[in-house]
Amino acid sequence: MSEYTYPILLGIIIGTLTRVYMLRTDYRQYPTYLHGKIIHIALGFIAAGLGALAVPSILEEDFTAVTFLTIAASQFREVRNMERNTLTEMDSYELVPRGKTYIEGIAIAFESRNYLVIFTSLLTTLGYILTNLWGGLLVGVIAFFLSKILMAGGKLEDIVEIEYVEPRFDSSGLYVENIYIMNIGLPERRKEVLRYGMGFILKPKNFDSRSTIANLGQRQAILHDVSTALGVYRDSGTPALVPLAKRDLDDGRIGIFVLPQERDIERAIEIIGKVPTLENAIRMPTERKKKEEGM
Amino acid sequence: MDFEKFILAVITTNPKKAPSGVAVFHCDNKEEMDEITANLEAILDGIAHSLTEDLYIIVKH
Do B38 and A186 touch (CB under 8 A)? Predict the structure, then answer.
């Protein structure tokens, strides 16, 4: 055994544990199944191995060995493609689809988490080699928590105020407060919609969040998350019963109309609040102004 | 050509209001109109929208 065996082992263990931690199954239910998890833990293990090996190879002045990190990069880009393809394929069979923006967000998260694993195991091994086992562990734990901070994105409750509103009909038009959702012709269908439907108003807290929640992908993500968590009163062949999110053009508020199976207002508000703000939807028009002022 | 939205059928009790170039179902009263619309909505997998009290359209979204 070489002097680097234990540092590398520690790096791999901490790195793989980081990946396992980041792979928790939550209410969004992905990945739920065992095989999906095994794939990601295996890839996490490979990532941890690559990160752990980088430090000894530099110390041994084997500089070309570091180029395998570029192989890692292309490997994990492939992970992103794999996730994107799988989710896109499955999306057409969802009663309320995730939408492309959400899928892209999930795929990016999968790729970036592997890089976080590399980062964690690299620092752990470095810590062990420079100090001792305890130093390595300490660095590993710090990197672990740093990864935890880095992996968490923003939540919708940070940028909007959520309010429950009973949906109503004005002749055949369905409204959530003053926001027009859709036209439903059949009186029978209107009754169903009023019985099961719930309306929410998302009021943006500032000008930036106004553009963010206007994004169609972000809105679809909200509808998907609510429908996943609370169920959905819908089936194929009933296109009229569709959850929708429409925008008030005057002030940028969003009217959400959903048809959950479980009508629990508190929980629905909580779930909408926990919807991630999608990286691809975030807009910051006010940043531009600040920069101009600063110049 | 790919249409995003398309009128699949029109159901009406008022023959004067029926457009041309699309399948029109003429009904005698509101009840019959509702019944036919509910069936067509399920069969055609479209959404029934009401334009006026006596005119429904089924639209594929």
Answer: yes
Closest CA to A232 of A263, A208, A201, A206: A263
Compute the average pLDDT of residues A228-247: 87
pLDDT digits (tens, 9 = 90+) for B15-60: 888 888 888 999 998 889 989 998 888 888 889 999 888 899 999 8
pTM, full prediction: 0.85
Is-contact A41 A20, C-beta < 8 A?
A: yes
Question: In terms of CA atoms, which chain B residue is nearest residue A240?
Answer: B47
Query: Taking CA A83 as the corner, what is the angle to CA A82 and CA A84, rounded to the nearest 5 degrees?
Result: 90
Alpha helices for A132-236 (secondary structure H): 133-151, 187-196, 207-214, 216-230
Nearest to B45 among A184, A187, A237 (CB): A237
Is-contact A83 A106, C-beta < 8 A? yes
Give the residue extent of every domain in chain B. 6-60
| Nearest CB to B49; choose among A172, A187, A237 | A172
**Cα separation of A124 and A56, whole Å?**
12
